[in-house]
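User: tokens in, sequence out, please.
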């Protein structure tokens, strides 16, 4: 059975692209379009991994990551932040909040994401 990934991304276009990348390597993907929905999805049906955007409506990705990592029911779930906020300060903030990796959305993002999933043991 394929592992399930929770993608938290407010852009439906980007969500579709990232979902397609993840599904192409055999993962099942659920999508939440904002932070509160992502937290609820992760708590109610914990995925093998959360892929998280930083720029989200109502609650940013840093807040979502912090809450996931402080909740005993979700703290074990690896979190990969995949975002356009690629400056060093944002990267450090994401890692400080508990993200397992922080990937800028650039031409190498899909490749970097797959490599990170292999390093985390999500993919073989």
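Assistant: Sequence out:
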């Amino acid at each position: 059975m394929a592992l399930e990934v929770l993608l938290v991304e407010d852009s439906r276009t980007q969500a579709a692209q990232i979902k397609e990348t993840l599904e192409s390597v055999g993962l099942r993907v659920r999508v939440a379009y904002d932070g509160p929905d992502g937290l609820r999805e992760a708590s109610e049906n914990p995925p093998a991994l959360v892929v998280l955007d930083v720029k989200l409506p109502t609650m940013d990705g840093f807040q979502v990551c912090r809450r996931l990592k402080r909740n005993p029911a979700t703290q074990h779930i690896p979190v990969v932040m995949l975002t356009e906020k690629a400056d060093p300060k944002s990267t450090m903030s994401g890692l400080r909040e508990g993200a397992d990796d922080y990937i800028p959305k650039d031409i190498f993002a899909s490749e970097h994401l797959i490599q990170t999933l292999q390093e985390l043991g999500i993919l073989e």
